[in-house]
């Protein structure tokens, strides 16, 4: 089994319903944006370029994602760049506007996520394992690859692991 499949199986066990998956394609980026916005405020200049905690965090997460799967991990890193750029733009606004935008994105993103889990009949995976909030962007990128007919080998591995039962994961109400 690939490292990616092993990490994704726990998350996948909580995300079986197509409506839940669809809500995550909206909610997760909003939540990621809110985190990146909060982490964009602490900045230092390095060679005339502002380096934020958000940039350092995403660089580290991209390296981690790439250690699980180089192509999908790099895709997440690239897909996150517009959110990172937008977060840095928002830090140029007043503090009240910036924090309001971040809080709004966080609340709306989570409302969308919870709606998805209502379809699923299950709680979010991070309730059982907080690390899952960091796996969500990787999972979404992998799901996009699967929908495009790519990385079917990894998809098959994930499905096999979920079918066997994932320790610590709860079964959705509709299963």
TrEMBL record:
Q: Which residues cross the membrane?
A: 21-42, 62-84, 96-115, 130-150
Q: Name one GO cellular component term.
A: membrane
Supply the alphabetized keyword list: Membrane, Transmembrane, Transmembrane helix
Q: Does the keyword Zinc apply?
A: no
Q: Which InterPro entries match?
A: Mpo1-like (IPR009305)
Q: Per UniProt, what is one Pfam family of this protein?
A: Mpo1-like
An annotated GO BP:
sphingoid catabolic process
| Name the UniProt record assigns to this protein | DUF962 domain-containing protein
Q: Which organism is it from?
A: Aerophototrophica crusticola
């Amino acid at each position: 089994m690939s490292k990616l499949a092993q990490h994704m199986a726990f998350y996948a066990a909580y995300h079986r319903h197509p409506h839940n998956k669809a809500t995550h394609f909206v909610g997760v980026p909003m939540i990621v944006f809110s985190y990146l916005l909060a982490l964009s405020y602490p900045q230092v200049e390095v060679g005339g370029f502002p380096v934020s905690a958000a940039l350092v965090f995403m660089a580290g997460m991209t390296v981690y994602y790439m250690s699980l799967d180089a192509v999908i991990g790099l895709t997440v890193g690239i897909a996150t760049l517009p959110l990172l750029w937008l977060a840095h733009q928002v830090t140029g606004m007043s503090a009240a506007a910036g924090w309001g935008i971040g809080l709004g994105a966080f609340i709306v993103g989570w409302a969308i996520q919870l709606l998805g889990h209502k379809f699923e009949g299950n709680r979010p995976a991070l309730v059982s394992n907080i690390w899952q909030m960091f796996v969500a962007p990787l999972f979404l990128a992998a799901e996009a690859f699967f929908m495009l007919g790519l990385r079917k080998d990894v998809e098959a591995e994930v499905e096999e692991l979920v079918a066997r039962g994932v320790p610590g994961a709860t079964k959705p109400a509709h299963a």
